[in-house]
Design goal:
By secondary structure, this protein is an all-alpha fold. It contains three helices and no strands. The protein has a domain of 36 residues. Helices cover 74% and strands 0% of the residues.
Length: 84
Amino acid sequence: MNTTFAFVMPGTQEMILILIVILLLFGAKRLPELARGLGKSIREFKKATSEVEENIREAMKEEEKKTTQDSPKPASDDKSDDVK
């Protein structure tokens, strides 16, 4: 394992300690409300992110269509118009 991640990732004992501290700070009644609010905010963030990605994709498709429509047509080698 990379030594950099050893300092970043908390172990089992640290996670239990963090959960106990959170429980003491906020109380058992407040934790479900906090979790619900966190879930809603994560859902809204993902929704906004997907909407931005979709807008970018649509803009790219429109730009691609615009460039293909505006591109000059190749000159025709048919010289039947010149001959009378």
